[in-house]
């Protein structure tokens, strides 16, 4: 939650209704449940709460200080001839999916973790099948997560002949044969079920290369299945898909119509200008800052993303896009050495990045943002630039920390590196597009049509990681 000096926060409203994603993980010991949770949600602890190895209480709420947007429940797998665990799981899901249960107390998704059998074993136990049938009948979101796909690929590779191993198509052959085996072993037994969702994972054991693409598909499948009000908290809680983070940060006011605002135009002063009128522009920027950073949910116990130091870095960026071209020289002593940084030019080099810091904040800019918001091309560029710059810096920061072992605690070095990476790669191009778009000639049409929100989305989509 933000401190004082902001407008009402949409993220606060949404998260007040459903502050945490509640996931039930089901699976036998050794299927990789803990590793899966650690990598998807960026935490590092033994999240599966065992009284003894292979023993757990499904009613225990398992949380981690590394990620405050997550609650886990753990269920033991279903051994042949043993029905207690299955009965407990179904009773738990019935209680947690009743219509009179508040959405924050419901189980939002079930991940049924199954290790891919490598020696012709049965992929689904009878208990697994009954749980799937129950979930489909009761419309409980359930995804089968097949784990250790990398071990299947290793076995396929061992079956290659020496000639095939020496072939230039070796990797391609292994990939194709592994995919074929996966269909035969894992997917054909699912054909009896109607539209059950599944995902696969690789490299979750220590020292292995994590298949990030597979984890992103799991996140996307989860978002597709959860209830609409849980979509946002799912994106916030997960820490493996930058795309989901980008979407959550820029679509929060578009997706959640029931929250009281109807479009991103709220921030651009177009669709709901009365909410901005009477507020200093600096207050509007601070509100945007809290909304976007909250959506990314970095492990930031030192609050580095919400302190004044980071905000000053953003101000140092967006100040260049605000004044009209003919007024730039009245804001800065000498603009010639850093025209590219302002957005007049089209390129920026790594050597030029420190100029952002060397110039400092313009007195004119700081005076300007303290004034009450008004509909002007300068204000429009300022709001658009803040949304674009902050979102894209968050995207760079996400990639900066993705390969850091969980819990990926944020450091100032991470932030500085992400800011510089954005400065040297995209900042000038983004600012050039904004300056070309939000000018006096088009401002009236922009206000009438709400096109600015679409331009912001297009810019972010063009420059964010894919």
TrEMBL record:
It comes from the Eukaryota. SUPFAM superfamilies: P-loop containing nucleoside triphosphate hydrolases. The keyword Membrane applies. Residues 22-147 form the G domain. CDD domains: Ras_like_GTPase. GO terms for molecular function: GTP binding. The keyword Transmembrane helix applies. Keywords: Membrane, Transmembrane, Transmembrane helix. The chain crosses the membrane at residues 338-361. This is G domain-containing protein. It comes from Favolaschia claudopus.
